[in-house]
Amino acid sequence: MKSPDRLLIVDDVPDNLFLIRTILEEEGYEVLEATNGETALELVRSQLPDLVLLDVMMPGMDGFEVTRCIRAWQDLPFIPILLITAYDQTSAVKGLDLGADEFIRKPVEADELLARVRSLLRLKHSIEERDNIARQRQDFVSRLTHDLRTPLVAADRMLGLLQDGALGPISQPVREALEVMARSNLNLLEMVNKLLDVYRYEAGSKTLETIPIDVAELVQQVVQELRPIAQTKNLDLITDIATDLPPVKGDRLELLRVFNNLIGNALKFTEEGKVEVSVAQKGTEIAISISDTGPGIPEAERPFLFQRFQQGFHHKQGSGLGLYLSHYIVTAHGGRISLQCGKDKGSCFSVYLPI
């Protein structure tokens, strides 16, 4: 059986405590009591009540200060606060601004009190249910993607051995088939790794290994690795990278992922013309811009561009996670990412990282 909801009443007047406790206990609630703010905060920490009924005017620490302290504890689950006040509207407004969820005036009427208590408890339970579903979903996807990596990595190694002839000679048709299988397997492995990283960032469990980074050198490395794609499509890949730039503090592999994604997207969506990459210092930031002469991004798509699984209305293959993950990574580095689009075509993504 589900245990009864635990309510904490905080009031410095014994008669008020007795009245409210009697009303609540008759409804089957478990009741805790405190006669001052300090004791109330200790009980909130140790007993984690489902609801706090809090008198506003108390000697020493009043209800406003208790409310402020409870809301300042970020590690606490959501606990609704019902203010009990004998004063005017201004008093209630101040309490609500500090983080209280509802208020009731003295003298307290039993029916009104119980109605407000039930309403706030429904709110708490709905929030708990939502958070629990979100945690279960994240755990499921995280475990699923983690478990998928094992057979994909094993398949990649086995395909590599076959291609190298470790298990005997293979004919040219079989070699070509293995190359297709290997590329498909790598694409799937990349997608799984990307999805796993997305959930790590969302769960706050992703740890950045920050070191001083030469952004100009890092971007130049990405450009050189992707230049064959530009040559295959007859695109001009132009760079304007400043030298002697101050370093930024960041995770090299994660930033490498960002620039690979942004420059790779520019090359993927540009069929003719050029892609230009620039790196320069702007004030206290290093600005990295990637502009292209592609079709641009329709205005209707721009508000959703950095949301996950948003691929737009193009016909290119992708997971819809690249820009979403890039935004997470840049933000985790204390930076920002923005988009500017031309009137007719072309787009420019800019990343700003603090020096």
Annotation keywords:
five-stranded mixed β-sheet; 3 domains; Heat Shock Protein 90; alpha/beta; about 350 residues
Description:
Strand 11 and strand 12 form a beta hairpin. The protein has 355 residues and is an alpha/beta fold. The strands form three sheets. Strands 2-1-3-4-5 form a five-stranded parallel sheet, sandwiched between helices. Strands 7-9-10-12-11 form a five-stranded mixed sheet, covered by helices on one side. The model has no long low-confidence stretch (mean pLDDT 86). The chain has helices spanning 14-26, 37-47, 63-72, 89-98, 110-163, 172-203, 215-232, 252-269, 322-332, and strands spanning 6-10, 30-34, 51-55, 81-85, 102-105, 211-213, 236-241, 248-250, 274-282, 285-292, 336-341, 347-354. Helix content is 50%, strand content 19%. It has three domains: 6-108, Response regulator (Rossmann fold); 140-203; 211-354, 2-Layer Sandwich (Heat Shock Protein 90), CATH 3.30.565.
Major beta sheet summary = 5 strands, parallel
DSSP, total strands: 12
- What is the CATH architecture term of the largest domain? 2-Layer Sandwich
Shape: elongated
Strand content: 15-25%
List the strand order in the largest sheet: 2-1-3-4-5
In short:
This protein has nine helices and twelve strands. The protein has helices at residues 14-26, 37-47, 63-72, 89-98, 110-163, 172-203, 215-232, 252-269, 322-332, and strands spanning 6-10, 30-34, 51-55, 81-85, 102-105, 211-213, 236-241, 248-250, 274-282, 285-292, 336-341, 347-354.
